[in-house]
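Hey, I'm writing a tutorial for new members on how sequence and structure tokens pair up, and I'd like a real worked example in the thread rather than a made-up one. If someone can provide the structure for the chain below, I'll link this post from the tutorial.
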Amino acid sequence: MDAFASAVSTNPDAGVAAREACDAVRTSLGGAAPDLAVVFATPDLMANAPGIAAIIEGSLGPGALIGCTAEGVIATGREVERPPALALWAAVLPGGPVGAFALDPARDAVPRGEGAVILLADPFSFPPEALREPDGTAMPGVVVGGMASGGRQPGDHRLLVDGVVRSGGAVGVLVPGARAVVSQGCRPVGPEMTITEGGDGIIVELAGKPALQRVREVVQSLPDDERALVEQGVLAGLVVDGNKPQLEQGDFLVRGILGGDPDTGAMAVGEDVRVGQVMRLQVRDHASAHDDLQRALADVPAGTARGALMFTCNGRGTRMFPEPDHDAALAAQVLGPVPLAGMFCNGEIGPVGGRVHPHGFTATMAIF
């Protein structure tokens, strides 16, 4: 039988915060030792990462422990955006114990297997290429996680894997029974357009016309409210799975438009592109981000969620939404008050179209 628990502490003493969270989790689990524990703590507390790990292992005896530094942490229905804060999540899994791993992206590949990988990585030493196949394509499968945050330079972040503290690379665990939810916080505008010339991140032509010209034509044809959003910033939505007969909002991989050449009409986007791929313009504001996360969560069958991990961009929270606790509160509203923990990230990781991608301004979740 599975069981999940989560807790948060804002005590400024790392040891006290870890013990408070452990006591609450142990009570929720009825004293059962979890197969997995995941901890997120702000830099002031994670400065005592060895002490936090020792307290969790001594108090809960988890089969596996992973964790990392976080600018802010997330709990059930609650987001703590400023230190001090520590969030702890634990699970008794139906398949029993799981094994945690650490990897050096220059030498090790992200593990594959049945289930989902929960991955916590250091943004200074874990490149996006680590999520790609040798031929440069995005790796298939389900990987959900995020980049540690709160540090300002290489070596500032702390990653935990069982009792070991690392300052680079990535740590993670392969778990059964987790479903990925990815909300890129955008909505599409204008028509779908086929890339008719381009490659290597450069779109030369869209629907047979120079890309910049085609984009200008689309923007000019938009209604006033959508054109106003485009003026705040427009992105490119690229279809990953071209075999779907009908495209929906979550089928587009959202990437920034990095610039354009007025002489040739070509434009650069933050992703490799191919001829025949479909693109649609995307806009992002707090209302679009709310609607997209609500849509993504609504795909989870009602009443089935038992626990969840959330990884949301540090550009979200009160930097994006007019009210606090937005993503955590919406998750609790749609899924119910299930045990949840997570962090504000320097970049999020999640699958789109069956392949794993890094993201920005995104909320990704592993739902059990």
